Amino acid sequence: MSRTAVAASISLCVLLSACGMGKPQLASADGELAPCNASRCVSSLSRDPDYRIEPIAYEGSRESARLALLRIVTAMPGVKVVLQTEDYIHAEFTSPVMRYVDDLELQFPRRGQIVHVRSSSRIGYYDFDGNRERVEQIRAEFNAVQP
Predict the structure, then answer these.
(1) H-run or E-run covering 141
(2) Separation in Å, CA 76 to CA 80, 91, 92, 95
(3) Which domain holds residue 125?
(4) Where is the signal peptide (predicted)?
(5) Is 11 part of a structural domain of the chain?
(6) Alpha carbons 108 and 115: distance in angstroms, whole number
(7) For the chain, how many structural domains are there in total?
(8) In a 10 Å sphere around its CB, with 0-12 CB exposed, 13-18 middle and 19+ buried, how is residue 35 labelled?
(9) What is the pLDDT of residues 34-71, one digit of tens each?
């Protein structure tokens, strides 16, 4: 293999490995989910219809809903739960080939029987509705186990 081919291969590997990087935009210290600012994001707190997704409704206790959602999320491929508290879950989803990272946040308010959700890709402009589809998959699986 020529030096040029080796250099090109190394450059391509570095470029591709950097594709999955990016800094997440997560909930603030006061617990508010960050707003969506690109088409690669959906949020139940957004008023913009392009970014809006319905919160996840539940019956029963907040803790049982949190545990059920945690089980569903941790069973999904490429997931790593980064943080979980009594009212918040942050999970990272890494794609198998390009190593892109998407952040999923679930927020469990003390009032009402809803879970606010935000799912966003760290980089890029458009995600081909991958985050919306992931949230809807989680919602469908959660609704299937609700009483």
Answers:
(1) helix 130-145
(2) 9, 11, 11, 12
(3) 22-145
(4) 1-29
(5) no
(6) 5
(7) 1
(8) middle
(9) 999 878 899 999 999 999 999 999 999 999 999 999 99
